[in-house]
Specification:
By secondary structure, this protein is an all-alpha fold. The chain is 68% helix and 0% strand. The protein is built from 4 helices and no strands. The model has no long low-confidence stretch (mean pLDDT 84).
Length: 108
Amino acid sequence: KNDEGRGPMVRKAENGADQLDRERSKRVGALAELWPFLRPYRVLLGAAITALVLTAAVALVLPMAVRRVVDNFGTEDGALLDQYFAGALIVAALLALGTGARYLLVTR
């Protein structure tokens, strides 16, 4: 903590340069400077982002599929429960495949 007991110690610049650096670092546009380094990997980057978005969507659907199974567990119609259970398994399999694809694309 600093002398006043607030937060971690930060070395302040005499001329306020630390504040200027902080304002510059808040700009998202500064990430555009990375594009020359990412350009050779643009197909891999696009595939990884696509896998991330699709896996996130499947992860949002999984609780709904499980809820269908749980809510219809006491139903008389076993075929309906089988369909919901199969759907939940398919969603879980898609989540597993998407997670594996993300891992493969990111660690490549």
